[in-house]
Design brief:
This protein is of the alpha/beta class and 501 residues long. Helix content is 39%, strand content 23%. It has a seven-stranded mixed beta sheet, with helices on both faces. The chain is globular and about 85 Å long. The termini are far apart.
Length: 501
């Protein structure tokens, strides 16, 4: 049965004026299951206008009252997590456990936002000069927008708007048009939690909607998560229009395996970090870097049979460990990069390209793939594959491994597995990466720290969520006050009228 996804404005469904639509696919079958309305520039401008109308009252709402709504929202997310996970998996393709894990990480940011009264406390300095005091506060930016990707349709929006709303902003979300249903359902829960009309709005669309948000002069800040080329475009166009922009972009994350590492632990870590969510995440480990030939041989021996044994199945199969990728376009891109790797001389030790599931022959399934003897000049090393493909690049020494990571254009995440504290400390101190794990394969910070990379993995000055999120969604204002000395007494005050005599 076909369904239709509309926009969400002032806590209600809205069809807009545009007649354009996009198709929503079930990636396990390749069938069209629904359509999503695509906003025009006029639609986006209308939604921004409605948000701006709600801004003054929301910005003036005491932070404790805003936090109370976040508490209600958290409760509703927990109550509906099974429903949300099934909805998410049906359009994205990831397994139900992966979907629940994604929603849980989003809920952590809601919990962080519940502490906004504490987070917005300013600073006060008494007597910076004679009879002069100085203090600072953080005030909301105003109308802010989020542009989010297909790979985490619940978590990434939740990394943005709970913090933005708690800080007193109003928000316009443009989710991915490939899997928009879960974002819309969560918007309905946010309204149910008590959020006033117009404070949070959702508009579906493609590049036309994105450009409208970037060009609208009322929008003061834009958060983006997605590929590096699009992130650079959004950052350039947004900042050219005077907006504050944070754009979290592509990655090529390395995991260094030292000779003393626990190989069973390394293998478990790589299976989860390289092949979870079909590799469609910016923090996936896509490059394993064993130090020394003997370490590399032990890693391959332990890893290859585990990858071959991965259960590839649709999300409706509760035993599934690896679901389909999001679209035919992604499926074809991944296959093309695998071919490039073979042609360049890398050894494809585990080939997951020939997965055929009865009843799902048109689905976008790719089994786990393992390359050995990958070199740094190959496209499968340089480019973000965004699929279930792990490359092994053998390093002659620890310094070679470190240099390899530092020389790559991306700087999102990296990890080292070792029992040596000196090696671990040297690694995290010297590696040019935004998020680092020591015996942790996917070093995504908890909600009260901040997420973001270096180099071409981030455009902008602020990471997302945590205190960096609070800083991004607020502007600092500092006051310096001087009062005449002496206290007025008696008839000099008229307390009846409240005015000075």
């Amino acid at each position: 049965m076909m369904y239709e996804i509309k926009h969400f404005v002032e806590n209600a469904s809205w069809a807009g004026t545009s007649t354009r639509t996009g198709e929503i696919y079930n990636p396990a079958t390749g069938n069209v299951t629904g359509k999503v309305l695509m906003a025009s520039k006029q639609d986006v401008d209308y939604v921004v206008e409605k948000a701006a109308k709600a801004l003054p009252d929301w910005a003036a709402t005491p932070p404790a009252m805003r936090a109370a709504i976040m508490f209600n929202f958290r409760s509703l997310l927990l109550t509906h997590i099974d429903e949300l996970a099934e909805m998410l998996s049906a359009e994205h393709g990831k397994t139900i456990p992966d979907a629940k894990g994604e929603i849980a990480r989003g809920i952590e940011v809601v919990e962080f936002a519940c502490g906004i009264p504490q987070l917005l406390k300013g600073e006060y300095s008494e007597t910076v000069a004679s009879n002069v005091d100085s203090f600072s506060v953080r005030q909301p930016v105003g109308v802010v927008a989020g542009i989010t990707p297909f790979n985490f349709p619940a978590m990434v929006p939740l990394w943005m708007y709970p913090v933005a709303l708690a800080c007193g902003n109003v928000f316009v979300l443009k989710p991915s048009e490939k899997d928009p249903s879960v974002a819309l359902r969560i918007a309905q829960l946010l309204a149910e939690a008590g959020l006033p009309e117009g404070v949070f709005n959702l508009v579906n669309g493609d590049k036309e909607a994105v450009d409208a948000l970037l060009d609208n002069p009322t929008v003061g800040a834009v958060s983006f998560v997605g590929s590096t080329p699009i992130g650079h475009y959004i950052y350039s166009r947004g900042t050219a229009n005077g907006k504050r922009v944070q754009a979290l972009c592509g990655a090529k994350n390395h995991l260094v395996v030292m000779p003393d590492a626990d190989m069973a632990q390394v293998t478990d870590a790589l299976i989860g970090s390289a092949f979870g969510s079909a590799g469609e995440r910016c923090m996936a480990i896509s490059v394993a870097v064993p130090v020394g030939e003997e370490t590399a041989d032990r890693l391959i021996e332990a890893l290859a049979p585990r990858i071959r044994a991965l259960k590839v199945a649709p999300c409706t199969n509760l035993d599934s460990e690896l679901g389909p990728v999001i679209s035919k376009q992604s499926y074809d891109k991944i296959h093309n990069l695998i071919e490039q790797g073979i042609d360049a001389g890398a050894k494809l030790l585990v080939d997951g390209r020939n997965v055929k599931l009865p009843g799902y022959e048109s689905g976008y399934f790719i089994g786990g793939c393992l390359f050995d003897n990958v070199t740094t000049d190959m496209s499968i090393y340089r480019e973000e594959i965004f699929g279930p493909v792990l490359s092994v690049v053998r390093a002659g020494s620890y310094d070679d491994a470190l240099k390899m990571i530092n020389d790559h254009e991306y700087g999102n995440g990296a990890a080292i597995f070792t029992r040596d504290g000196d090696a671990a400390r040297d690694f995290w101190a010297r590696v040019r990466i935004g998020m680092v794990g020591v015996n942790v394969p996917i070093p995504v910070p908890v909600a009260y720290h901040s997420f973001g990379g270096w180099k071409r993995s981030l455009f902008g000055d602020h990471h997302i969520h945590g205190m960096e999120g609070v800083r991004f969604y607020t502007r600092l204002k500092t006051m310096t006050m001087r009062w005449p000395s002496g206290i007025r007494v008696g008839a000099e005050f008229n307390f009846t009228s409240g005015k000075e005599a």
